[in-house]
């Protein structure tokens, strides 16, 4: 097997873009307002509402998910609910509305919540890790090992090194290639919600799946009931006319 050659990148030697010259009146304003963390975020996420909403860059399927939910529920409320209210009970649209509300709210919470992104190592921290690994003092660069053993609750746990985030990942943490971030308790990247599913939004994702299953089963049962009642009423009307 051929040996792979690595070249060390000094984080402190990276060139930083020179900020444009500010106007005399804006110098005081720039000193008063420091840049927030989400404004210099290195991942592939998008932020809205002053960083309170975070979504993946490739979130084009999320509008399709919302459209399918709204169109299906809208057709149910327009065509099925009036007939079922006249012939069965008025509780049907109330139950459907509650399920629809839970589905939409849990979907938005899953899509717009931080899934558990771990901050990347700063240039000083990354350089310190490299210095600890290269304890021989040689000038040649040796890549960090892919695993590191630590003791957690009297058990030896192996931590994997992330070459992108320049840190050892905690247990059950993986790097998402779509968002380019290390996510704690990473489950998967769901394109239907437009976000990763991890530690901080897993309960919202679970609520979305459960409520959507109940809503789908409820609408399907109501549609079958609607068709059955129509056929029964039509047959009863035909029998009445023949008599």
From TrEMBL:
Residues 1-34 are annotated as: Disordered. It is an enzyme of class 2 (transferase). Signal peptide: none annotated. The keyword Transmembrane applies. Residues 1-15 have a biased composition (Polar residues). It holds the Pfam family DHHC. Its EC number is 2.3.1.225. One of its GO terms (molecular function) is protein-cysteine S-palmitoyltransferase activity. This is Palmitoyltransferase.
């Amino acid at each position: 097997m051929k040996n792979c050659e690595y070249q060390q990148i000094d984080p402190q030697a990276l060139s930083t873009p020179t900020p444009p010259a500010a106007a005399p009146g804006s110098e005081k304003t720039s000193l008063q307002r420091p840049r927030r963390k989400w404004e210099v975020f290195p991942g592939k996420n998008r932020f809205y509402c002053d960083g309170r909403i975070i979504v993946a860059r490739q979130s084009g399927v999320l509008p399709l998910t919302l459209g399918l939910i709204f169109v299906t529920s809208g057709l149910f409320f327009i065509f099925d609910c009036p007939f079922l209210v006249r012939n069965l009970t008025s509780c049907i649209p109330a139950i459907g509305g509650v399920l629809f509300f839970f589905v939409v709210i849990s979907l938005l919470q899953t899509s717009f919540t931080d899934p558990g992104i771990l901050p990347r190592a700063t240039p000083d921290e990354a350089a310190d890790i490299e210095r600890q690994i290269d304890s021989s003092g040689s000038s040649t660069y040796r890549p960090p090992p892919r695993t590191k053993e630590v003791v957690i609750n009297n058990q030896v746990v192996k931590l994997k090194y992330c070459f992108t985030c320049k840190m050892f990942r905690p247990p059950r943490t993986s790097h998402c290639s779509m968002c380019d971030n290390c996510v704690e308790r990473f489950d998967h990247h769901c394109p239907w919600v437009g976000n990763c599913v991890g530690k901080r939004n897993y309960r919202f994702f679970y609520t979305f799946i459960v409520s959507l299953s109940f809503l789908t089963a409820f609408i399907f049962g109501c549609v079958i009931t609607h068709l059955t009642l129509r056929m029964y009423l039509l047959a009863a009307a035909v029998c009445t006319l023949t008599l």
